[in-house]
Amino acid sequence: WELPPIEEILEPGSEQDFNQDLIRQQVRIIEDTLASLGAPVKVKEINRGPVVTQFGVEPLFVANSRGKETRVKVSKIVALADDLALALSAKTIRIQAPVPNKGLVGIEVPNEEVSLVALRDIMESEAWERVRSPLRLALGQDVSGAPYVADLRAMPHLLIAGTTGSGKSVCINAILTALLLQNTPDDLKLLLVDPKRVELMPYNGIPHLLVPVVVDMERVVGALQWVLREMDSRYRRFASVGARDIVDYNERVAAASPEVGRIPYIVVVIDELADLMMLAPQETERAICRLAQMARATGIHLIIATQRPSVDVVTGLIKANFPARIAFAVASSVDSRVILDMPGAERLLGRGDMLFMPPDAPQPIRLQGAFVSDAEIQRLIAYWKVFSAPPAGPIPLERATPSVPAAPPVQLPLHPDLAPPVSEQRPSGLFEDDLIPDALEVLLAENRASVSLLQRRLRIGYTRSARIIELLEELGV
Ligand SMILES: Nc1ncnc2c1ncn2[C@@H]1O[C@H](COP(=O)(O)OP(=O)(O)OP(=O)(O)O)[C@@H](O)[C@H]1O
Ligand SMILES: [Mg+2]
């Protein structure tokens, strides 16, 4: 294998220029507005990012009723966010208090013109060089325009949430692109799950895939169980040579007997967890949590995205196992709390504007996500596809590993062990769907009929719920 050259795959970013006058004007508006509302501040620092500009302000002193001078309270500035937004005619502003290590309050104002963050600019930055890991992620640029790079191995799993159009799929594509530019199929295998059937389908055919992109929800639980078995088999292999983790194992094996072959990292990507959680909540949750708990040492990492940050999708158990999270724009501060355990994401601008919560940081970091175009992805996929034709068997992971006592990574086909998910078993009894009586009860109690109501109450998928409503209509309810 040979890695693709970055400059042939990715396009360079464009320079951003900005309007000095506008920024000076904004400084004045911030100082004047806050002073007139009894919270005088001084702008001490200006950081210009691709999508927002951060004004670092220092609270000044005001005299209280007894004539004593005290500094303006941070909470007072935070409470004036909406007034400031109005004065600046900004869609929404976010106030970060305090900016870590700076002793300033950060007021983040959307830029007049947003600039794209090119993935290539981040992958050619020093920040990228500094992180030494085969699973580096070029997440984006922070509010001062500095590139931000994270290591998936340290996370070790990533949860991504945000409303529709907020940038989840672009983010996943950027992550996959970065991974595929750094790793050959010997070092990295992917399991991609895409219930929407559009976002990840183009990756079909690249040699990194363990199986073709999984689009059938019924298959997913089986696929996750396959990964669980692979995890167990890796533990056995590590134990047989006394290796601590995948890095240790690969070093020892490479040193001792190169012909045995290294163990590749496995990255599992699920673009839309909600569909899965509706279909088979218990199995999905159990499989995901077990993988998340045990997979770090074995080099198996999960990246999960969802449009619906509600507690029945992002359950407490799942959250507990995904300390690293990205919140894109969400509808309400309640949603933001589900993802980040704090409000803030409801003030994001959408289209790649995110709050990234690193695994053990007290505060999330605001980033503008790196963007990859379809053309770039196409080039990368075309590059890798060349290698995989003619097809080298169903699962390329399959290579003879004679001198390893434990079983080589499992090559069971995915299909036999696919237990039919509980909620989709053939209905029996009186009605075409045996949940109809329950559904009726729910609808009568609520005195309204909606597909999503049924989905939530009966914990069933959209298709089935819609079908039940149809059936009820046919029955004349
Ligand atoms: N990092 C980014 N930079 C610039 N534009 C972006 C970025 N991320 C997303 N966008 C814009 O927003 C659009 C929607 O993004 P995306 O498809 O990732 O949304 P999504 O969160 O996956 O939505 P859905 O939940 O409906 O799948 C993109 O087509 C793109 O135009
Ligand atoms: Mg999407």
Short structural description:
With 477 residues, the protein is an alpha/beta fold. The protein is built from 17 helices and 15 strands. The strands form three sheets. A nine-stranded mixed β-sheet has the order 8-7-15-14-13-9-12-11-10. The protein has a four-stranded antiparallel β-sheet with strand order 1-2-6-5.
Mind explaining what this structure looks like?
The structure is a single chain. Helices cover 37% and strands 18% of the residues. With 477 residues, the chain is an alpha/beta fold. The protein has 3 domains: 20-110, Threonyl-tRNA Synthetase, Chain A, domain 2 (2-Layer Sandwich), CATH 3.30.980; 119-388, 3-Layer(aba) Sandwich (Rossmann fold); 429-474, Winged helix-like DNA-binding domain superfamily/Winged helix DNA-binding domain (Arc Repressor Mutant, subunit A), CATH 1.10.10.10. The N and C termini lie far apart (62 Å). A 9-stranded mixed sheet has the order 8-7-15-14-13-9-12-11-10. A 4-stranded antiparallel sheet has the order 1-2-6-5. Strand 5 and strand 6 form a beta hairpin. The protein has 17 helices and 15 strands. The model is unreliable at 391-430 (pLDDT under 50). Helix 10 crosses helix 11. Bound molecules: adenosine-5'-triphosphate and magnesium ion (MG). Magnesium ion binds next to helix 7. The site of adenosine-5'-triphosphate (ATP) has 14 residues, from helix 7.
